[in-house]
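Handout, section 4.2: multi-component inputs.
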Amino acid sequence: MIVDCAHYHEGVRQHKGPLDIETAAAAANGDGDFVWLGLHEPGASELEDVAAAFGLHELAVEDARNAHQRPKLEDYDDSFFIVLKTARYIDEKEEVEFGEIHMFAGRSYVIAVRHGAASELRAARQRLEQHPELLQGGASAVVWAILDKVVDDYAPVVAGIEDDIEEVEQQIFQESADATERIYFLKREVIQFHRATFPLLAPLEALERGAYAPVDEQLQRYFRDVADHARRIDEQVTGQRELLTSILEANLALLGVQQNQVIRQISAAVAIIAVPTFLASLWGMNFEHMPELRPEWGYPLALVVMAVLVIALYRFFKRIRWL
Amino acid sequence: MIVDCAHYHEGVRQHKGPLDIETAAAAANGDGDFVWLGLHEPGASELEDVAAAFGLHELAVEDARNAHQRPKLEDYDDSFFIVLKTARYIDEKEEVEFGEIHMFAGRSYVIAVRHGAASELRAARQRLEQHPELLQGGASAVVWAILDKVVDDYAPVVAGIEDDIEEVEQQIFQESADATERIYFLKREVIQFHRATFPLLAPLEALERGAYAPVDEQLQRYFRDVADHARRIDEQVTGQRELLTSILEANLALLGVQQNQVIRQISAAVAIIAVPTFLASLWGMNFEHMPELRPEWGYPLALVVMAVLVIALYRFFKRIRWL
Amino acid sequence: MIVDCAHYHEGVRQHKGPLDIETAAAAANGDGDFVWLGLHEPGASELEDVAAAFGLHELAVEDARNAHQRPKLEDYDDSFFIVLKTARYIDEKEEVEFGEIHMFAGRSYVIAVRHGAASELRAARQRLEQHPELLQGGASAVVWAILDKVVDDYAPVVAGIEDDIEEVEQQIFQESADATERIYFLKREVIQFHRATFPLLAPLEALERGAYAPVDEQLQRYFRDVADHARRIDEQVTGQRELLTSILEANLALLGVQQNQVIRQISAAVAIIAVPTFLASLWGMNFEHMPELRPEWGYPLALVVMAVLVIALYRFFKRIRWL
Amino acid sequence: MIVDCAHYHEGVRQHKGPLDIETAAAAANGDGDFVWLGLHEPGASELEDVAAAFGLHELAVEDARNAHQRPKLEDYDDSFFIVLKTARYIDEKEEVEFGEIHMFAGRSYVIAVRHGAASELRAARQRLEQHPELLQGGASAVVWAILDKVVDDYAPVVAGIEDDIEEVEQQIFQESADATERIYFLKREVIQFHRATFPLLAPLEALERGAYAPVDEQLQRYFRDVADHARRIDEQVTGQRELLTSILEANLALLGVQQNQVIRQISAAVAIIAVPTFLASLWGMNFEHMPELRPEWGYPLALVVMAVLVIALYRFFKRIRWL
Amino acid sequence: MIVDCAHYHEGVRQHKGPLDIETAAAAANGDGDFVWLGLHEPGASELEDVAAAFGLHELAVEDARNAHQRPKLEDYDDSFFIVLKTARYIDEKEEVEFGEIHMFAGRSYVIAVRHGAASELRAARQRLEQHPELLQGGASAVVWAILDKVVDDYAPVVAGIEDDIEEVEQQIFQESADATERIYFLKREVIQFHRATFPLLAPLEALERGAYAPVDEQLQRYFRDVADHARRIDEQVTGQRELLTSILEANLALLGVQQNQVIRQISAAVAIIAVPTFLASLWGMNFEHMPELRPEWGYPLALVVMAVLVIALYRFFKRIRWL
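Output:
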């Protein structure tokens, strides 16, 4: 589905509604002109039309047809093919939902193909259209705007995970509850998220260094800015990964602490009941001469002795903190 | 055993059935001509005939004679020797079955030697024969086609392991069953699989960069595509490895949780029976003046008291979730 | 808020009180002249005024507006933008408190923006003003002085963590107390602190190597000194991280040791009480011919036997160290 | 002790028995001539004689005097000094026995000094003498032959460890036996073996790349072959190391599983005996009106009730798999 | 405190007793002349005098004033500043005691400042004075001699730790004693020792490669020798670190094994006493018709039955190895 398709001349949009593909392809070969085409989960034929109109490379088109690519930047002499993973944190499920954006970026066109619940790019387009001075950078400016949007959208994911980690800390340290399953699934999400963001670092740093020709020096700094944000995300994710490993270990240790505590409680309880039971057995013996069995106060005294012992034991175990 | 042996001219197969080795070797020296020879677990003499006919290097031939090589690409000036590990996932046994493909690739010939349950190459050959424009790339195109097939066949292995990991998660988190053995053997498979695929990355990236002369620029992109797939596989395998480590730890923690639970259940049961037993001992004492032993309602009341205490304890332990 | 703003000529401050921004910007373009402007959490408009007066790059200004940047050094042809994390150890809470200093460093100006509880820079300024020979190095000398101050302030943090690690060792080895939570939170602080200091190493080493033009050779050695201190911090933090991992494991093992000990104690206690209880049951049997029940010394002897057994068991368990 | 000392001319041995050192040293300076001298744990004076005759460097000679060097290759302009660790697996003790070979390799001589139970080099010499075309490569060919022998001898070690790992897997998963000590010592052997083989990789790869002058291109491929084998060994050892870590963790988890099982068994047994004991106490009470005590069938019925309950409990615990 | 101060000409000491600083500084500017000055924990003024006399750089002098530097080599155009950590193993405390040596090495002087219990350098000086051919290398030879001494002194530390590791293995595997604390503190020492030796590798390898001008090629090999020893130390320490991690895990597993054993013992003991206790309760019941209570042999038979059961149970638990 075509989301939008616009022709820009010297940084200014030349028309209101979206162009059709042929007109756009024809417009995308002037000097200060370029076309920005946005597609959302295009059908096979639609993608083929676009590929034919803009002369896209077969391999890149094949990749764009399927989601589940890894983030990458491929250089095809006169154009790039860029794959980005977008991410969104679903707090209720504590899951990261991934989408994908595939970009074909030539000197005079950018074709962005969105798959799944990928970041909305409308905001990026509007922001850029309000900055004609950036848009004059041409297609590279669009590439930057999309990268910037995608990487900025990683921040809430990191924050969401951070929140959940804090909740887990609360859970295991304050509430002494087991959180093994939650920790494990958080870690799984972090590993997946890392896999989605980490491979982006190398191409972003290449863009920052200006390894790719069509990016002018002015824009390079904007790419550096994106690379810097991506690095920050990556460092945070790496830290979270290590934290989650530590939490899992702490959780294990706390289970041991709890077990020690439970065993002590039980033992105390067993001791408290074993002592009077022994006494009862004792006075249940059938010796003929057990003088304490005779008097009337024998039984009440026995009960008192038992009660006193129980209370004393209870206090003792309270004091040594087994109860 | 010779599987197939064909002579291609300008990307077109020149005959139907397989050629014999001498004819093939003679044909493999023209300009746009090359020969594609497929062998399956060749005998020593067969391999020697081929080596003599095509002038293969002794060391490479020695390697090809034995399976259990590590993946590699060796440059012999005028030819390459490539070793690939093929992999297939046997879901019932949760094992990865490995095979090997050894390729001798010269300017005008490709000799592929399959060992064990290696990927069928027939599909690669047929696909390529239907694309004469690729076949015009000569021997390199065949190398690409085989690499592409082998690396594509890694994907189901990763998917199979992924499925089993999800089953294990289900097993330990939903069913609270111990899965130590299964996790361990899955991890062993993942380690082995990693060892089979990882060493391929460096030579594939060298091919992608065009470090080896006879690959033309057009094909380089196809090699880059293969390298990209291999990287994706590698990242997934690395992720699975880390996940399995975490699952083993989570499994250990869950064992602790279960143990705590079991100990609590047992303690509750002990307490529930210890209390009436104490009472029975109490009323079994031989004091002469135990007024409650006299009346007729003494015994039934005692039974009632015991029953009430048992029920109260049971409820109590239910409430604090020890039962 | 402007903290101070001074114009230096040949290393000597030209006036007493702070200058206003316009005068400063005008002064900051001579040969041996430069301006050092210190801001503390400036408002948006204040920062914009400064940016306009000194011609700072939009992206750097945007970064300086928000705290929570990662440490970095960005080169803008004629100037640098440097982000530093400052750290302070709050011993009571066992937490590292972070602040930030953002520096814009041009040939003839240094603008330092402090966020949060960042290191006071007054000391750095006073120290430098007393060394005009260093100040003659111009803006680079100021950059060095600030870096030096910030990195020196890391040392007490490392020392504070070191102290707490020793306390934890004391706690788990001498006092046999569980310290899981404390260890975990110390580790979290160490991970965060590492993330605040580690990214600084690369740009400091670049400064040391003289990768950035406006630093003269004399000052390079001073930057090397700072880099060396930062490396020492980094190595100590890495060591602490590994130590804390080991402590967590040791803590887990000690929990197991304690549990073994507790189980032994309990078992000994159970055994000590079970034996006389058995004897009491034995003599409570209703056989008609139990000769020991008859004589007067029967009961006292039984008590003595029980006491002797209890004492013997107690000694036995003491000897095998179960009690 | 001199093992053998031979003078080769154009790849052909010039005499039968071993030469004495002076004659050998004199012969070792022609064009196609070189000398291969094998020593086994030479005395100090013997080594000094050799050093004087061939002009070996003092530092290398000092190293050769003592075993316990790390594997290395040192370039002394006109000669190399190579240290190799040889390894042999002692299956009964599950230990790797290490020896050492020190080689002085000049343009026209190779002096191999064996320490400890190092690989026999006789086989390497005989194999090479049967391939005069290789021997024409001169001293480098001898270096290759020795390297090849040493690295080939690593394979049985890896295989031996592999077998023991499989035995351990059998032991802990099938036989549920604890294997902590065995796993630990296997891991220790693997770590030591890794330390013996890993440092060899870098110099072997340097030889492969032809970083050292006197190796001709033809032989380089043979060195590449050795390097490839060494890499395979290294990858296998690394895999074994990781496996052993996982086994230790699996072993720990299985201990937990067993403990849960043992605790359940015990609890079941306690419950089975506690119930009839309670009943016995009950009917041992001294209430005057306990009608069931009167009739003759009272006692047999009580016994039946107890037996029924014991059997019912036993079946119950069998069904929930606690027994 | 000045330990010694000597002027060497062409490798020969020019006088007996120590020179004073001014004379030494004056002598240290000829061609084949150089001065070797040894200081031990010099006072501030003493160090300043030396700095002034030899023109040492302020930053290096500041470092030399304080111990607790990290190992490093800093190049000051015409001189080096080298920091070394010396180490000594205190076997009784199982601790590594660190000292420091700071060297200022110029073309014609070496000033060695020792801090704490650093290696005695007298031996290095005497050894060198007996080898005038080495001393002719000038100041570099002294640097080498000191480096060599310091690195050689690491070997006993590694050996001491090795011994203690073997003791710990003995302790936990043979004696089944818990060694958590000992393992932990050994690991802490190993981590600290690693931090003291590891940073030395890079500068030593730079010296080995001849990255620093004033070292002649002859001496380079001696530096390579030192670097090689340092690498060996480093590999051993790394191995010990990994071993200690494994021991801690093995220790944990053994605790689990012991716990299982203890629990089984206890359970067996409980069972052995519970069965006769049950029988005693049984025969303590008050049924009127319990024929076995009547006869004279009733009681002795009961005792026999109990004894037989106890023995049978004991044997049973012995056989299944619970006792």
